[in-house]
Amino acid sequence: MGSRSASLRARVVAVPVALGAFAAGATLPDGHTVLSVRTLDAQVAEPGEALRTELRRERRMSVASLGRPSPERAQALCARRQRSEELVAAFAGSARARRARRAGPRDGAGT
Asked: CB pairs under 8 A, 24+ apart, for 40-44?
């Protein structure tokens, strides 16, 4: 009877261990995907959104400056363009960063 109860104990322990291993194997890739998406959002999407907004402002200011040129508008446009260039550089650096490249698609679909 001793070997039978040892076998039963082994089964009682093995089932939760097997279920835990299965659950970890099933959820680990999903966790990695969530981390990759968060990284891409922080490294690419957010800086890209800031750049897009700044470029829109620069375009509006350019049109206004062309419609009614003035030294003040020209100076403000120069400052706006400088800000846009800074955001372009920040976006390019962030998008090329190692973290963003590692979080991107592995099959070459996004390259």
From this structure: 40/100, 40/103, 40/104, 43/94, 43/95, 43/97, 43/99, 43/100, 43/103, 44/94, 44/95, 44/100
**Residue with the larger pLDDT of the pair 3 and 39:** 39
**pLDDT of residue 74 exceeding 90:** yes
Which of the two residues, 110 and 11, has the higher pLDDT score? Answer: 11
In a domain, 109, yes or no: no
List of residues 6+ apart from 55 with CB closer than 8 A: 84
- Domain membership flag for residue 110: no
- Report the number of distinct structural domains present in the chain: 1
Location of structure tokens 């999407």: 45
